[in-house]
Write a structure and sequence with these properties.
Blueprint (H helix, E strand, L loop, with lengths): L6 H4 L24 E6 L9 E5 L1 E2 L8 E4 L5 E5 L5 E9 L2 E10 L10 E7 L5 E5 L12 E3 L6 E12 L10 E12 L5 E6 H4 L9 H4 L14 E6 L5 E5 L4 E5 L5 E6 L6 E2 L10 E6 L4 E6 L2 E5 L2 E4 L5 E8 L4 E8 L13 E5 L2 E5 L5 E6 L5 E7 L12 E2 L3 E4 L12 E5 L2 E5 L8 E7 L7 E7 L4 E5 L6 E7 L5 E4 L2 E3 L5 E3 L1
Parallel strand pairs: 18-24
Antiparallel strand pairs: 1-28, 2-4, 2-30, 3-29, 4-5, 6-7, 7-8, 8-9, 10-11, 11-12, 12-13, 14-15, 15-16, 16-17, 19-20, 20-23, 21-22, 23-24, 25-26, 26-27, 27-28, 31-32, 32-35, 33-34, 33-36, 36-37, 36-38, 38-39
């Protein structure tokens, strides 16, 4: 068995008592991290339509799971039934929207490619309708699930496969072990592998920045040498791939026949830099942008290999846009997004994703989610997952990538009705996953089948809304209304004296 050390263990942090920071509710069993707003321009998302897709992990997270929040910090949906999740996103497949996320055991953070899991595709009822996996003995790694646009029929997936390897050329054992990085393009409908490529076949050990004598990796099957550590895959319209490799600190372009066409960054870069700040370290999430003239990435600036070795090349992690001229073979920086209010490096994870005229940078193991004007690079919005507590950075709470959708593009249709808790005459109502509730109407009546008199209508106030039970008769129910007055759903009937559900 391979050991699965969470980042904080690797960093030597003491495991904290679980459950310090979570928010709980009366009317729902969900337990979530707060989504704490640090800065917000009045111009940013004025109607709170954004839906941020988050999977918090880390030693301070008692209940890992997926969650959706609004720009005002309000929780919209949470579910921890699949446990550990990564890379929560909305993607199109076959003309339909799916919530996609990796679930399984493992952590993205350690100096090894990790994750023995699968990718879930959920419909707008938050129901899993499809699982997608790599064809690989260890299953699917957590780092990438990128549905290839514009066809939206195949997915790019990372995996790793531990194999024996002679590591003596870099000072390791002759009978050593190697974490072979695998990329596959999968036909989502059939599961067939359309492209299969491994680091062992193409990338020399000498390209790695993973110092084997420091990390001690490679000595056993449980602790293989992670030379390359692929963390993203993208495909261009000509059918070539680009991968981001954290441990060789390079982006590789790979032809459909498997040949490496060029390297950007690392020890063997094929590009000449024009101007400053084009270099990157331990980067994540490399994507073609702007008609394939630019690559966006998240430049972590730092990495952890083992408990005592933090490699810090840059004092601050940033989201970057690099202009990549494949004829002149030059690279230059065109956009750089800095964190605020603090600046810091990130030891692992992170993302840079444009949405219209804004860009969202997810700072990974420093769980900040920040939105910027693409044009001016100015910060518009900053939030932290969990409390705003620096002792939780780089270990306590992390979020692999930060993506969003909005209530304009996505409507959640929960399969369960609104849920109610009656406590001491007060009524608490929530509807996990409903995206378009504007208000709740309290209905009452003298018996289970006669609950139809409206007592009051109150605006929805956060994930859970408190309604006074004053003026109610023996039985109550709560209806959820859209802004246009349409009833979207109604709770069961509850008996107010004991709070028990009495029927529908
Ligand atoms: C519904 O609310 C009750 C409390 O009234 C709670 O015990 C239960 O866990 C809730 N169900 C869900 C799915 O959150
Ligand atoms: C594929 O998905 C993208 C959005 O991710 C969408 O713009 C495009 O129209 C989709 N293509 C097809 C063929 O549905
Ligand atoms: C989502 O899938 C579930 C299970 O197949 C199904 O019951 C539900 O109706 C689907 N929801 C939508 C909105 O398609
Ligand atoms: C998908 O995987 C999840 C988690 O491993 C499992 O619970 C579920 O049964 C699978 N669903 C399908 C449709 O294969
Ligand atoms: C992918 O390539 C590797 C290395 O060449 C090979 O061992 C593996 O069987 C291939 N997997 C598939 C599904 O083709
Ligand atoms: C690995 O680290 C050791 C100890 O700091 C150092 O002596 C050695 O030069 C490093 N090796 C490489 C290849 O950087
Ligand atoms: C692989 O494809 C590249 C780009 O299309 C081409 O330049 C190269 O010659 C091909 N190599 C082989 C061995 O076919
Ligand atoms: C590049 O960095 C150097 C050293 O910090 C500085 O002197 C120079 O002005 C910078 N050049 C540009 C184009 O920003
Ligand atoms: C920050 O988190 C630590 C645990 O990591 C806790 O001891 C401390 O009280 C927290 N500080 C605040 C201000 O919440
Ligand atoms: C920067 O990160 C380090 C390591 O996680 C942490 O100790 C420090 O408090 C952070 N600094 C700020 C300003 O957030
Ligand atoms: C009212 O709003 C809901 C939720 O946004 C929407 O589904 C429905 O179509 C609207 N109805 C009318 C009549 O506009």
């Amino acid at each position: 068995m391979r050991s699965l050390l969470p980042l904080a263990t690797v960093l030597g942090l003491v495991l904290r008592a679980h459950g310090l920071f979570e928010t709980t509710f009366h009317s729902s069993s969900v337990v979530v991290q707060p989504f704490t707003i640090l800065e917000r321009s009045p111009l940013y998302d004025p109607h709170d339509t954004n839906l941020f897709l988050i999977c918090p992990n880390g030693v301070a997270v008692a209940q890992p799971g997926a969650a959706i929040y609004k720009s005002n910090g309000e929780l919209v949906w949470a579910d921890s039934k699949f446990g550990n999740c990564y890379d929560f996103n909305v993607q199109m497949y076959n003309g339909q929207q799916y919530l996609t996320m990796w679930v399984g055991a493992g952590s993205a953070a350690v100096g090894q490619q990790m994750g023995f899991g699968t990718v879930l595709m959920m419909n707008s009822s938050y129901q899993v309708v499809m699982n997608v996996s790599a064809v690989n003995p260890e299953g699917t790694d957590l780092h990438e699930f990128n549905i290839v646009k514009p066809e939206n029929k195949t997915a790019l997936i990372t995996a790793f496969h531990t194999i024996p390897m002679d590591l003596s050329s870099i000072g390791g054992p002759v009978d050593g072990w190697y974490s072979n990085g695998v990329i596959q393009e999968i036909d989502i409908a059939t599961g067939a592998v359309l492209f299969n490529w491994t680091t062992f076949d193409h990338i020399s050990l000498l390209e790695s920045y993973n110092n084997i004598s420091l990390t001690g990796q490679g000595s056993s099957e449980a602790n293989p040498f992670d030379a390359v550590h692929i963390n993203s895959i993208d495909k261009d319209r000509e059918g070539n791939y680009i991968i981001s490799a954290r441990h060789s600190q390079a982006i590789y372009k790979i032809a459909a026949n498997g040949t490496i066409l060029w390297r950007l960054g690392g020890k063997m870069s094929d590009f000449t830099a024009i101007g400053n700040d084009t270099e990157f370290h331990f980067q994540h999430h490399a994507r073609w942008r702007m008609d394939e003239t630019h690559i966006s990435l998240y430049d972590d600036g730092a990495a952890v290999f083992i408990s005592t070795v933090n490699v810090i090349d840059e004092p601050v992690a940033t989201g970057k846009y690099l202009k990549v001229d494949q004829e002149k073979m030059t690279v230059s920086l065109t956009k750089r997004f800095f964190p605020s209010p603090n600046r810091n490096y990130t030891l692992a994870e992170g993302s840079t994703e444009p949405y219209g005229d804004t860009v969202i940078v997810g700072y990974g193991s420093v769980p900040w989610l920040e939105a910027y004007s693409f044009e001016t690079e100015k910060l518009l919005f900053s939030a932290v997952i969990g409390p705003n507590n620096a002792s939780l950075w780089n270990g306590g709470v992390s979020n692999y990538r930060a993506f969003k959708t909005s209530t304009v593009e996505f409507t959640g249709h929960p399969t369960q009705p609104p849920n109610v808790s009656v406590t001491g005459g007060d009524i608490y109502v929530s509807w996990n996953g409903a995206t378009h509730v504007a208000s709740y109407t309290l209905l009452t009546g003298p018996s289970v089948d006669k609950v139809s008199k409206a007592v009051t209508n109150v605006p929805k106030s956060g994930f859970e809304t408190k309604i006074s039970g004053e003026g109610s008769q023996d039985f109550i129910s709560v209806a959820a209304l859209a802004a246009n007055g349409t009833t979207l759903g109604q709770s069961a009937v509850y008996k107010i004296s004991d709070g028990n559900a009495a029927g529908y």
